[in-house]
Request: fold
Amino acid sequence: MKKLLLVTLFAIFSFAASAQKNTSQSYIEQFKDNAISIMHETGVPASIVLAVAMHESGNGNSTIATKLNNQFGIKGGKSSVYYKKKKKVRSAYKKYDSVLESFQDFARIMTERKQFSHLGNKFTQYDYKSWAKGIQRSGYCSSKKWASQVIA
Reply:
């Protein structure tokens, strides 16, 4: 009886541990190397890559992040489909094969789209506040508080 109870408790705690949500610290730990690599390749600051991803995806816990691997709230050309509680959901958000692909697409948007590409010439990799404000002013989001929320 005791053995059965111990096995049951172990199973419950194992399941609960696996269902835990990412914290900001665990998210940084998990994706910092991707962000640093992107910074070296593109000049987009790793701090901005991580801060925007964390803000837009709720540290990777949002439905869009978990179902579509979309860490940045990027909308795509065709609708994506995912299932929530056995219901088919159509989404305007872009679906990625991996989280890394989402990170790379964000960097591509920042460096190749005309509305954002000037930021790399205007700000250094260390000026994260100006990058956040520049991304906001360039139309990445509709909220007037977005940059201050990203850098908070």
In short: The beta strands are 75-84, 87-93. The chain has one domain: 22-150.
